[in-house]
Amino acid sequence: MYNFKNLKCYNCKTVILSLPGTEIKKLNGLNFQCDCCGHQNHLQEFKFVKSRNTNDPYLNILSIDNILVLPKTL
Questions:
Q1: Are the CB atoms for 44 and 25 separated by under 8 Å?
Q2: What's the CA gap between 43 and 2, in Å, rounded?
Q3: What is residue 59's DSSP assignment?
Q4: What is the Cα–Cα distance from 66 to 71, expressed in whole angstroms?
Q5: Mind listing the pLDDT tens digit for each residue in 11-58?
Q6: How confident is the model over 62-74, as pLDDT tens digits?
Q7: Dmax of the chain from CA atoms?
Q8: Domain definitions of the chain by residue range
Q9: How far apart are CA 61 and CA 19, in angstroms?
Q10: Helix runs in 1-74, H state only
Q11: How many Å apart are CA 60 and CA 29, to the nearest integer?
Q12: Is there a contact between 53 and 32 (Cβ–Cβ < 8 Å)?
């Protein structure tokens, strides 16, 4: 039986891939775009991290990174 692993977007935690570990190893180092938030995710081992691609149009907007840095104003 296959042991499937779910890989989630680093930004919105939506599942992008659900594959066996052996197949995920073959995809290591590739970028995937999230259908939900549009961010590019870099596959590193068995998890997605923020892509180093500077052409990502969503890099500076709608990112959880920017929300965490925003000052709290009322």
A1: no
A2: 20
A3: S
A4: 10
A5: 899 999 999 999 999 999 999 989 998 888 999 989 999 887 666 665
A6: 555 555 555 555 4
A7: 53
A8: 4-69
A9: 29
A10: 21-26, 64-69
A11: 22
A12: no
